[in-house]
Specification:
Layout lengths: L3 H4 L11 H21 L17 H24 L9
């Protein structure tokens, strides 16, 4: 178990300690993301490449890049990871 709770004994709980508040925050972030995705239809785009004219291109491109980075990190971990006692004598 973590020492995080032991460090704050006697202190009032903070607002993110309540799981209900965390859930509300996640819903708020999801709603903002969906609103921004939908806002892509509300303005005229001056595109440089034809792919940019696709509805939600930047959201889809960003999500794809995020997935690629996570997957690349997963495989790089296997290459770069050292044993726990690598620096010990």
């Amino acid at each position: 178990m973590s020492d995080h709770n032991q460090d704050r004994q006697g202190e009032a709980p903070r607002w993110l300690d309540n799981p209900g508040n965390v859930k509300k925050l996640l819903w708020l972030l999801a709603a903002i993301g969906l609103a921004l995705f939908a806002a892509d239809a509300l303005y005229h785009k001056h595109v440089h490449f034809q792919a940019e004219s696709v509805f939600g291109f930047y959201a889809l491109f960003g999500f794809g890049a995020f997935v690629a980075i996570v997957l690349a990190g997963k495989y790089l971990r296997k290459i770069l990871m050292r044993p726990e006692d690598y620096y010990d004598d």
